[in-house]
Specification:
It comes from Muribaculum gordoncarteri. The protein has 17 helices and 7 strands. It is of the alpha/beta class. The chain has 2 domains: 3-15 and 59-229 and 268-313, Glycerol-3-phosphate (1)-acyltransferase (3-Layer(aba) Sandwich); 231-251 and 258-267 and 314-392, no CATH class. It has a 7-stranded mixed sheet with strand order 1-7-6-2-5-3-4, sandwiched between helices. Strand 3 (124-128), helix 7 (135-143) and strand 4 form a beta-alpha-beta unit. Helix 2 (19-26) packs antiparallel against helix 7 and helix 5 (58-77) crosses helix 6.
């Protein structure tokens, strides 16, 4: 382990020198065995472990193990995973890919699948410590090129952790020429109205040794849009909205997070599409020299939002949801009666899964239905807004 790896030892992906040791430990974990048998019931676990123990580094792990797994998962749970804009990526450079956040596990997994298909290097992945419920999950993600974002810390510790995270991202992108991925905000946007958080941009600009503006320039920010035709967790998000309406202090449990991860991983998603945007380098160069950090962060958020919203792929259900929500037929040309009937049936079937909330009323069901319509309408709403306020 080199000096930099020691410096970021508690958050960085495991170095290849530790790969075999960590994998030997992982395959002995009962929780890992249970997870593999649940996700891959057709696989002989002992044979799978033998295959894992032959792998000596993270790149080989991603290409020999994760790539075939993700292709299988895409075939079973999607109607296709596609990407455009790949020509915007220069293989000689490293980037900080910043995306909207739809699925806890698959946003970056499918992004890296698209990169592997295109012959591009995969990214390292930021993952929140709140999701690393068991030690074996932490080991698995760090073997798979993930670095840890420390969550739920006291204020002083949070500032320290933000500085460490920023320093690691700058080290990865600038020194190692290793691209990284990070979501534009902490947590998924429950209503699918994706907006970048200025606190995230401020974190990215903490390190680099220059002023805030140049620190952001250094890490090659590149927005990427993620569009899911169906969100398997939509009914869980609607349920969470309802529980928060009943009790504003409601907070999800670790069990809820695990179930969301499992649902997103294994349930149907329809079509999944990625749109790679352009780096923000030129726009950052054009910002006035006299802007303070807060103003720069705000402007960068708007630049990220513009590219992500503009890049959304809009599906028939987005048009249907928008028209239903606003009691209009403005977008009726984009769908037919069968599309509407299928979407209505889908909403009913998803909401029927909300079985653990006591004393559900007709008003509760109507509220959750409205929230689900909002989730599917917002990508279209934001794309239309971007066409008006974003620079062409």
């Amino acid at each position: 382990m080199n000096k930099e790896e020691q410096l970021f030892n508690d958050i960085c992906p495991y170095p290849d020198s530790m790969f075999h040791e960590k994998m030997e430990h992982l395959v002995k974990e009962p929780g890992f065995e249970h997870a593999v048998k649940w996700v891959l019931p057709q696989v002989d676990f002992q044979e799978f472990c033998k295959e894992l123990l032959q792998v000596q580094d993270k790149e080989t792990f991603q290409r020999k193990i994760m790539w075939p797994f993700l292709e299988m998962l895409a075939a079973k749970t999607t109607s296709g995973v596609t990407m455009d804009g790949v020509e915007n990526i220069d293989c000689s450079k490293a980037y900080t890919f910043i995306t909207n956040h739809r699925d806890i596990v698959l946003d970056t997994s499918f992004l890296n699948l698209c990169f592997l298909r295109a012959g591009l290097p995969t990214t390292e992945v930021a993952i929140g410590s709140n999701l690393l419920i068991y030690e074996w999950i932490s080991d698995l993600v760090r073997l798979n090129k993930s670095f840890i974002v420390k969550r739920n810390l006291p204020r002083a510790k949070a500032l320290e952790a933000a500085s460490e995270l920023s320093a690691y991202i700058h080290y990865a992108v600038s020194d190692r020429r290793q691209s990284v991925w990070i979501a534009e905000r902490e947590g998924r946007s429950k209503d699918s109205s994706d907006l970048a958080q200025d606190s995230l941009i401020k974190m990215l600009g903490l390190a680099g040794g220059h002023d805030f503006h140049d620190n952001l320039m250094e890490i090659n920010l590149m927005p990427v849009s993620i569009s899911y035709e169906y969100d398997p967790n939509d009914y869980l998000k609607a349920r969470e909205f309802l529980l928060k309406r009943r009790n504003p202090d409601f907070k999800k449990s670790q069990r809820d997070d695990l179930f969301s991860m499992e649902t997103g991983l294994l349930q149907p998603k329809g079509r999944v599409h990625y749109t790679v945007g352009n780096t923000l380098t030129d726009e950052l160069k054009e910002l006035p020299n006299d802007l303070d950090k807060t103003s720069i962060a705000r402007d960068v958020c708007q630049l990220v939002d513009c590219q992500i919203h503009s890049g959304f792929k809009i599906f028939p259900i987005n048009y249907i949801a928008y028209d239903k929500l606003h009691d209009t037929d403005e977008f009726a040309r984009h769908y037919n009666d069968d599309d509407v009937a299928g979407f209505e049936r889908y909403i009913d079937e998803q909401l029927a899964k909300v079985e653990d909330v006591p004393d559900l009323t007709a008003d509760d069901m109507a509220y959750m239905q409205k929230m689900m319509l909002t989730m599917y309408a917002n990508p279209l709403k934001n794309k239309m807004s971007a066409s008006r306020y974003c620079r062409k």
